Amino acid sequence: MRKPLSRAMPLAAPLLLAFALPVPAQAQDARTGTSFVETFEDEQLDRDRWYVSQGWVNTPDYDCTWSVDALSKPGDSLVFTVERAPTAERDFICAEVQSTDVFSYGTYEVRMRAARGQGVMSAFFTYTGPYFGDPHDEVDIELPGARPRSVEVNAYVDGSHGDIGQAVELGFDASQGFHDYAFEWTPEVIRFYVDGEQVGEITDPDRIPDTPGKIYLAVYSGRGQYEPWLGRFVETSETPTMTVERVAYTAPGEPCQFPESIVCGREP
Questions:
Q1: What is the tens place of the pLDDT at every residue in 2-54?
Q2: What is the pLDDT of residues 127-167, one digit of tens each?
Q3: How many C-beta neighbours within 10 Å does residue 245 have?
Q4: DSSP 8-state code for residue 12
Q5: Phi-psi bin for 257: left (phi > 0), alpha (psi -120 to 50), beta?
Q6: What is the mean pLDDT of the chain?
Q7: What are the structural domains of the chain?
Q8: Residue tagged active-site, from 96, 138, 152, 184
């Protein structure tokens, strides 16, 4: 029987030192992952499945430092925030988790409520790149906080083609409630879904990655070259918050794992 939490509990402080720096690619020894459903029911985040980004800034265009202090687990959900907490590099902290395993073709699904705010991005994506000894390949579902009634879907192959993503109008405010976002990645096509309905696809073979990548969940604030895309981040009394209730990966040919999965509708 799981133990419910009565308040937002920061992730276990004693684990912080283990994640103080990015782990070298060879040390991560990533495995090719199998099908799973993560509903965050356990009191603590499963560190065998998830690695918490801690103590660095991705590029000069990120306006925050990744920090475990911007991540909490109130009950059966995972909460990501952008908060003022000055570090050596930035005035704000933000949160990201990545899978310890890598994943290839299959169906990726998340149930989440996006963050709202100028200059803020909520993201669910797969990624690998030169840091891991791979080409820069990724598949993205991104929810810009300045445009909460839209979602942007995209893919990169060896760092290319990421500038021709699709922006899709949602018909609802993604920051006001939980919704299901998903993509199906095959060698021939990537299909994107919102609440079970297909909203976009990529069929150009030059735009479909083939390198297994880690699964990422993140919220961050941008600056510099990101400002024309996200807007300029301005701190307000409302903390930008992304909340995730479920993440799942289903390998090709395997049965659906939960009733709301888009895989269920394809089964005979």
A1: 222 222 223 332 222 233 334 434 334 568 899 999 999 998 999 999 999 99
A2: 999 999 999 999 999 999 999 999 999 999 999 988 888 99
A3: 17
A4: P
A5: alpha
A6: 88
A7: 30-266 (2.60.120.200)
A8: 138
Name the 3-class secondary structure at 228.
helix
**How do beta strands 106-113 and 179-185 pair?**
antiparallel
Residue from 96, 109, 142, 184 carrying the catalytic annotation: 142
Told to judge if 260 belongs to the known catalytic residues of this protein, a careful annotator would answer no
38 vs 168: CA distance, rounded Å = 27
DSSP H stretches of helix in the chain: 25-28, 227-230
pTM: 0.89
CA dist 124 → 13, 72, 87, 144, 258 (Å): 25, 17, 25, 12, 19
142 carries an active-site annotation: yes
